[in-house]
Design goal:
Elements (H helix, E strand, L loop, with lengths): L5 H15 L3 H19 L5 E7 L2 H15 L3 E7 L7 H8 L6 E3 L2 H5 L5 E6 L11 H11 L5 E4 L23 E5 L17 E5 L5 H6 L4 E4 L1 H7 L14 E5 L6 H13 L4 E5 L5 H7 L4 E3 L17 E4 L7 H10 L6 E4 L1 H9 L12 E2 L3 H8 L5 H15 L2 E4 L5 E3 L5 E4 L11 H14 L4 H19 L10 H23 L1
Parallel strand pairs: 1-2, 1-4, 2-3, 4-5, 5-6, 6-7, 8-17, 9-10, 9-12, 10-11, 12-13, 13-14, 14-15
Antiparallel strand pairs: 15-16, 16-17
Helix pairs in contact: 2-3, 3-4, 8-16, 9-15, 9-17, 12-13, 15-16, 15-17, 16-17
Length: about 500
Amino acid sequence: MKILNRTQILEADRQTLRKASISSTALMERAAMACMHWITAHYTTNQVFAIFCGTGNNGGDGMALCRLLTAKKYNCSLYEYPLSETPAKDYQLNKAKIKGTSIKKLTAKAVASLPGNVVVIDALLGTGTKRPVEGVLKEILCGLNQLPNPVISIDTPSGLMSEYNSKNPAEGIVQAQHTLSFQRPKLAFLLPERGGKAGIFHLLDIGLDPKFLEEVKTPLRYLTVEKTKNIYRSPNKFDHKGNNGHLLVVGGSKGKMGAVVLAAKAGMRTGAGKLSVLCPQSGIEILQKSIPEVMIENNAGIDSISGYYGLNHNTIAVGPGMGTDPQTTAFMTSLLSQPKAQLVIDADALNMMAKEKQLLKKLPKNTVLTPHPKEFERWVGSWQNDQQKIQLLTDLTERYQVICVLKGAHTAVALPNGSVWFNSSGNPGMATAGSGDVLTGIIGGLLAKGYTPEDAALLGVYAHGRAADIISRSMNYNFMMASDIIRGLNEVWMELENQQDILSL
């Protein structure tokens, strides 16, 4: 799913009006209808709503929504805030259709006097926002954010710019519990700077021109289940362990063998036919007891990996729990001399390479790197804002022709062609020790099974997050462990398999 910038969003609306031969008011009605259907599916007619409308097009959506909800017997009060001397044409048309509902002036005092049982619908400012909110309106938004009342924002939280918000103060942006966004997510929803302002966002189809959406050029994508359905391959009846691939996991050091266990288990749960582990001798007994399905490759190191690689594996996941001992760095140098191997590099292997910059030149094309933000910073240096971070990410992948999986909420997968995919699955429970090791094992397992590096990274990131979402159904994600994510993988593959069955009918 493509992520559009502010200009492209406006052009999508314009092309839809032209090609569908409909008025802007009719498109606004579609948007209001989509919001009405979502609200009626989630709230009974006992719920009271206060709808805050600016006098622009977003406020026109709010006026139309008020009319539709009132027709469904919902109790709605309307508040208006003038954004300019002349209201937008479509706003005026929708305001004229309001019957039987008085329209009050929106002030800071009116906001402060709202009863606690009222759900606020925010239709003040839309995607046209280009600068931070100031003055009286900022005072109103600050007052709203101090209330306990839930807020549903229409299209985008008022005050939030569609893309980057590093110079946009948080207090001038509505804190939504839910955002009902149209057709495509806004980039701002997916970035740490102000993405939390959108709360849980929901994408509502309002029938924007499909040809425009297909042809518009953008390097930014949203990784959805629909994409992963197209990537996933169903097992063949005559598959055997030989053609399901052989993954080598390299890692571990004294006191850090759990990371290797997690990566290995995740690789097996992803369907790798065979899995070997190369670890120091102190970790062999732990591995054999923890996961008897794996094979062990001998290494001379006692408490950390040392010596020369000297093996012949085609798919290698390296780094979990590895440590950064100098003799391990020497081993890593020898491993990178294996030009035909497909690599996933994580954790301490990334940290070693950050110190030894000459190793970057040895990376095979389409190597998959899986850093968390601090590890990424060691590679590229610090950044001032999300925009600069995304630029550093794409610069790295294009320069070295690698794939970089920058972990976090909405994990970003940057490809060598300059595109960046933001993940749609996952939850805060994944912010726990070992979660990244699980992801390394998943991506490694998919590579071993023959997925391309791009597909392995995208499918692996989605499956990782989806497994955590599945586990969160039965446990509070605040108490989730990395091993719980592995338990959720089976249902992820079952879901994708069922979708494949449907597609084949």
